[in-house]
Amino acid sequence: MRLKTLLCGAAAGVALMATSAAGAQSIELWTTETQSDRIATIQLLVDTFMALNPSVTVEVVAVDENDVPTQIAAAAAAGTLPNLINAGSELMVAFGEEGILDQAAATEMVDRVGRDRFFAGALNMHRNPETGEFYALPFHGWIQGIWYRGDWFDEAGLEPPNTWENIRAAAEYFHDPAENQYGILIGNMADSFAEQVFTQFAISNGGRQFDADGNLVFNSEEIREALEFYVDLAEYAPPGPQTWRARDYYIQGRMAMFFYSTFIMDDLALAEIAASSLTAENFAELAGGSFDPELVEHTRMVPIISNAQDAGYGVVVSMGIVDSDDQAETEAAQQLLSFLYEPDSYITWLHMAPGGMNPVLRDIAANDDYMADPRGIFARYGTDSIQEIIAGLEAIQTFSLVDGQLFPASGEIFARQIIPQMIFRATWEDVPVDEAVAWAEAQMLGVIGE
Amino acid sequence: MLGRRGLWGNLTLTVAVVLLLLFCLFPFVQILSTSLKYQADWGNPSLIPTQFNWDAYLELLGWGETEELAIPPSIERLLDRPGLTDAQRERILAPYRETADIFPFPRYFLNTILLAGVAALIALALAVFGAYAFSRVRFTGQAIIQRSILFVYMVGGVLLMVPLYQIAVGVGLAATPWGSVVALVLIYVIQTLPVSLYMLGNYFRTIPYSLEEAAAIDGCTRIETIFQVIIPLSIPMLVTVYIYAFIIAWNEFLFASVFLRQYDDLYTLPLGLQTLFVSKNAIWDRIMAASILTLLPVLVLFTFAMRNLTGGLAAGGVKE
Amino acid sequence: MKPQTVLERAENRFGWQLVAPSLGVIGLLILYPILYNVYLSFFDVQLVGDNVFVGLENYQRLLTDSAFYDSLTTTAIYLLGTVAGTTLLGLGAALLLNQDFPGRNVVRGLILLPYFAPVISVVFGWQFIFDPVNGVYNYMVVEVFNLTDERMNVIRDPDLGVIVVIVFDIWKHFPIAYLLILSKLQSINTDLYEAAAIDGHGPWGRFWHVTLPELYFVLGTIVILRFIWNLNKFEEVFLLAPNVQTLPIFTYYTAFTGVIDQGLAASVSVIQFVLLCGLIWFYVKKVLKW
Fold first, then answer.
1. Assigned CATH class of B105-318
2. Do the chains contact at A4 and B165, CB–CB below 8 Å?
3. Which of A232, A282, A417, C290 is most buried when burial is the number of CB atoms within 10 A of its CB?
């Protein structure tokens, strides 16, 4: 992951070529979907669009999500910005603030797709607090939750891990390092996974980066408590600094709970399919023999954590239209967007990662074609849980959104990975919680001051 | 050797050799073992899988069941519209069907062979002349140049990475796929050139002058001597140096990742392997299988060239 | 300069013609980048817009940054550990495989394998060995030998990671030390040993009085070259244990993550380069004795 950053960091200053076919309107789409199977699907959508609109040529460029800010900065300097950017909403807000996005065109598109069709929460995350326009269009989203072994919880008579107390109690109960069993996976490497998990705890304690007046209030009792709790909870995690990769331990039956986005649904179901070719007897004598052939059925998820308040975390991925002097390019970009929001194209896109890419359009969420995903993953989890997840998108809270108000500076703080470094210091470098939080706030002030 | 080993001597020797081999080979055994295990079996410390799992290899090599990739219904509906002809539909679907594989081993393999092969060839060609100059020709500045090449031998990759990339960008090489390949080949050439110069220079010194003198009497120019005397006499060493340079380029990762990142059709094996690792749905068995596949060609070449290689390295590394 | 004959001049020209292509490639692709780095280190490098000249500020910031000193310490530990380990194991292996025993040639070949394996194809295997939950390392330490009660994530631990990195480097590079030492060992005249035996030296005495002095030069070379190469080492450390920050890795993080600062990174590179030149000078003067 980091190496990619390296490359493209080095690539800053590179002029990304825009190939322009003679006579045709040529536009470029940057997407953070870098996996080859997803690119293939996006390419198929774009090819279809081009077959239907012969006057437009579309180039698809995959950019790793960690590289997007540097790449955009470099492209802006070189005058080689793409026409459409498909990336997380926080980045989109930051780009909007930097004046890269055509907010009028995006707002017009929201209306063209149908303002009422969007879930209000998703739309709000894109609303410019000053003009009321939209920075970009919400496209799809995932939510984060605690995934846990429902069968183990039932057996132990434990409450679902939905409050701080319940989480800690369960983590303590299942944590048995001597037997190579662990309580919970939370992120404590200095990466964005750590930030995502911590944010949910911090917000559930009423912690925030900015108050309603836009003052930085990160160094607060709420955040310190949350970090304190987080560092404690890390005691029940598998050894050492860990990140999302450690979810494998859950699949192996070595861990009771883990934080993850809804992208896991796909993986879990596939792991189960892979394992179903083996009978349980084959593995009965295994030293690590706690593998469960009915893992999906035994897995449950809690999307909301409560302490001082309820908190749900997630990310909405958006489509931004880049500001261009060439009106024809903007129109071509809008044309492509209209096509991508058509039900069949939209469902095709979402089915790249069932559960991970959830619709932000009401009618699609209720659409039978959408619910019939090609690998039958929704059927495995049940319609209700999918609808619950989609509903969860509405309740997303992040540091950049306070009482429905958006704080664009939060996006830049996110991009600098200040919170992940704070977590790493507090968990692994024995920095006292007070100091770690004070350090983080000082860093944040530096970012805002720039 | 002096003296005979007693029983204890023999025992100590055997134990020491076994321990040494274990240390050297265990990681490879571990990789092989994990590549053949099912996920549920990872926690099992035994090196022999409970049940052999060949899926990772079959998948990477594209030898799995050749079932047609099913086209999801939403895509069928998407394409089933009046505006599209059947031919268009086929053209749209063709690439989708093809790119189902996540680690196109044959393609990466070919890319790597070509890159490493060409780079090693250029390095060898340059090194033949350079090494001949060092070992046979007297010219001003020779000592300084020889020393600076030693110096270059020691300046490593990271120091050069950013500036080299910026140069490549500056002259426009990084903007196109083939430009990036050219830049990368050049970089591999400089990485392998110093070693090749040393190994060849030492070898050339062992060729008797008298042979060259004989050629000169026959009316050969110096250049012709190189081609007609030196090169034919050095074939085994040339092969060795070539293979060594090839392996260096084959293994290189850092620069490949900088220059080829945007062009996934041109990925080399190490780069493909790293990409496989960071793609979220990759799991250990596939990574290990890909590791083994990346390792294999080096192993074959190495077995092939071992005898000469070890001698040449020893000579090349110690002095000049 | 002494006057040259026509023949000498021709020879001179011929020599230069032969080395010119190599020199051109090397000059362009190595010397220029080094100078460029020095140049960048005096600037506040902007990703977008013009660079601002800041004089020595980058160096000042670096020399007052505790993270830089931590990185220096890590680098020192890494260098000492790897150099000592590689040299000693290489020496041991060479002495061992200089003995006669059946299958010696096969063993000699097999132990070179780590050296020739692509780094990327072995790091994942090593990571798996040290995986806290599934890895065989923890299995041995905790379950078989009961050395500790709890499994540890040695490879990711900011303090212990460097040990794994050192062991990995020894594993990967002792074969080259072994190879150099072995070839020297084989060239030692057996008369020397016989003379020492006549002087009444046992095996140890022969080792101290004959083998070691003969190996002095090659051991010195290995030590210095390992120092130099490992000071540059990036891939191995970074891919294996990203929490271990030796200088090149520190440079990388400074240049490309968080608050991106390529000017500062360039100044780390320059300092690293100066250290490197010092080592090379030492090698040339003291070991090669040019």
1. mainly alpha
2. no
3. A417
Among the listed ranges A379-393, B152-166, B256-270, which one has the minimum average pLDDT value?
Answer: B152-166
The pLDDT score that the predictor gives to residue B282 is 55
3-state secondary structure B128-144: HHHHHHHHHCCCCCHHH
Specify if C22 maps to a domain. Answer: no
Q: How far apart are the first and last CA of chain B?
A: 30
pLDDT per residue as tens digits for the range B11-23: 999 999 999 999 9
- Cα B61 to its chain centre, rounded Å, is 19
Say what the pLDDT of residue A274 is. Answer: 61
Give a yes or no: residue C1 inside a domain. Answer: no
CA separation for the pair C235, C123 (Å, rounded)? 10
Residue B266: predicted pLDDT = 87
Q: For C55-97, what is each residue's pLDDT tens digit?
A: 888 899 888 888 899 999 999 999 999 999 999 999 999 999 9
Which of C134, C130, C144, C147 shows the shortest CA–CA distance to C241?
Answer: C130
Answer yes or no: do B294 and C121 touch at CB < 8 A. Answer: yes
Which chain B positions have a beta carbon within 8 Å of A288's beta carbon?
40-44
Counting the structural domains of chain C, the total is 1
Q: Give the distance from residue C173's alpha carbon to the nearest chain B alpha carbon, in angstroms.
A: 11
- Assess if residue C17 is contained within a domain: no
Tell me the domain boundaries of chain B: 7-53, 69-100, 105-318
Q: Does A22 touch chain B (CB under 8 A)?
A: no
In A, minimum Cα distance to B96 occurs at A40
Task: Kindly indicate the confidence band of residue A1, based on its pLDDT and cuts at 50, 70 and 90.
Answer: very low
Neighbours of C84 (CB within 10 A): 14
- Rounded to two decimals, the ipTM of the complex is 0.85
**Nearest-by-Cβ selection for A52 from B84, B162, B264:** B84
Note down the domain range covering C151: 65-287
Q: Does B69 touch chain A (CB under 8 A)?
A: no
CB contact under 8 A, C99 and B311: no
SS3 sequence, chain C?
CCCCCHHHHHHHHHHHHHHHHHHHHHHHHHHHHHHHHHHHCCEECCCCCCCEECCCHHHHHHHCCHHHHHHHHHHHHHHHHHHHHHHHHHHHHHHHHCCCCCCHHHHHHHCCHHHHCCHHHHHHHHHHHCCCCCCHHHHHHHHHCCCCCCCCCCCCCCCCHHHHHHHHHHHHHHHHHHHHHHHHHHHCCHHHHHHHHHCCCCHHHHHHHHHHHHHHHHHHHHHHHHHHHHHHCCHHHHHHCCCCCCHHHHHHHHHHCCCCCHHHHHHHHHHHHHHHHHHHHHHHHHHCCC
Outline where B81-141 has alpha helix (H).
86-98, 105-136
Task: Return mean pLDDT, chain B.
Answer: 80
Mutation pick from C123, C133, C137, C234 vs chain A, by most beta carbons of A within 10 Å, is C133
CATH of the domain at C139: 1.10.3720.10
Q: Best residue in B280, B283, B286, B288 to probe A by mutation, most A CBs within 10 Å?
A: B280
Count of pairs with CB atoms under 8 A, one residue in B, one in C: 264
Q: Give B142: exposed, middle or buried? Use CB within 10 Å, 0-12, 13-18, 19+.
A: middle
Q: Looking at A343-357, C245-259, C268-282, which range is the least confident one?
A: C245-259
Which domains can be identified in chain A, with CATH numbers? 2-142+314-379 (3.40.190.10), 144-310+398-449 (3.40.190.10)
Strands (E), B144-250: none
Contacts of C164 in chain B (CB under 8 A): none
Residue B294 pLDDT greater than 50, yes or no: yes
Quick one: pLDDT band at residue A12, thresholds 50, 70, 90? very low
Q: Does residue C52 lie in a domain region?
A: no
Return the residue of A nearest to B100 by Cα: A37
